[in-house]
Write a structure and sequence with these properties.
Keywords: Chloroplast, Endonuclease, Hydrolase, Nuclease, Plastid
Helix content: 40-55%
GO molecular function: endonuclease activity
Protein name: Putative LAGLIDADG homing endonuclease
CATH architecture of the largest domain: Roll
CATH superfamily of the largest domain: Homing endonucleases
Number of strands: 6
Oligomer: single chain
Pfam families: LAGLIDADG_1
Number of domains: 2
Number of helices: 9
Amino acid sequence: MDLSDEYALNQIKQKLGGSIKLRSKSRSFRYRLHHKQGMLTIINLLNGNCQNSIRLRQIEKMCNHFDIPMKQPKRLTSNNGWFAGFFDGDGTIDYSFKKDYPQLTISVSNKQAIDCEIFQKIFDGKIQYDSRLNTYKWNLYSYEQILVFQDYVKRYPLRSHKKIRFFLLDKFFKLRKIRAYTHPPESKTYKAWLLFEKEWKEWSLPPNFIEKDTL
């Protein structure tokens, strides 16, 4: 996981045990679990709840290995925290200027179209194929659709550092509505936009992050 997600990994470690190590070359953390009891706990937590097409095959192998009956995935609704967990891993929230207007996009990328279609079925949006990366991407663009997903995240909070940008969404919409980015540079309104941009960009660790060998 990203360097900014040590907190999320420590939550997993506290519940299941295991170890967290820094991968210096890729600037990321790796979580590993080796002991049997922890693996059995994971299987019981995921069995019947996992929806990811690739992970389902992996869970099936683990169930067979430990002689545990494999459960079919439950039918998903918006009253399920699964979407938040999947977004923590494969989701993105960002904005870019298009014709002098900040367009916010919430997206999920995955190699399998079926894993993006789950999001589209519940939250609407569009799915596109990126031939350059050989991935499918589910996107939300409209204000109304984003508000629905924002409400979902309030009910099922994210665990990764991506939650920081969701905390800033109300401020983003407020400043965008008054077009704060078009005000004179010396105005307080424009300075409020600059402060927002700083908060938005500081959601991850700075480049001069001091690396550690292990945790």
